[in-house]
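Re: the 223-residue chain
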Amino acid sequence: MALQKIGGRKRKGIVGIEAAVVLIAFVLVAASLAFVALNMGMFATQRTKEVIGKAYESSSRALEVSGSALANMQGSSDSSQNPALEILVPIRLTAGSKAIDAKKFLIVTTILYANGTAESYARNLSKAHFIDVETYLDLSQAISEAGLSDAGDATLIGVSGSIGDGKLDPNDLIYLEVKMPDNVFAYSYITIEIQTPTGNALTVSRTIPATTAEGLINLDMTG
């Protein structure tokens, strides 16, 4: 009988140790899961902060059109055969935006001709020659000075503030000038997309009117 009691005690001791091992294992697994969950939560929080930060940065550097788009017309007695030589779009940073490096702009120009054909050009402004003028009356002179020769070429003309340093500041008003091909006649539809290093692209679309005018015309006031 004594041997049986001793054996029973040994058996109970072994069962107790096994239960303790199982309990410790459960505790370790639970701790590991808790650590993983906590780590994932911290990672998700960090990612959320990064996304919000990038969204704020993007919105703080958005461009906007600030005035009327212009076309520099060659002039012709036949209004249907009067080509647009350059398109100029006035742009500036939105209120509260930070300065942005204009040398990193990518200008994508798409032309849909009246006959239904289309072509596109893409130019970055990394090597563009930016020009500053004192008044709006100097735009024609600035166009001549820029001397854009190839279709799709682009540059910036500073009217208020200075763009000569390549940086677009919050108070600057500039014109984006884009050179047109030789055959951009009446009813051609021009779309210019300005892609910036951060923030959404600014897209501007205008139609070339039938006109005999020579020089700069307002594309927002033509019927």
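The chain has a mean pLDDT of 83.
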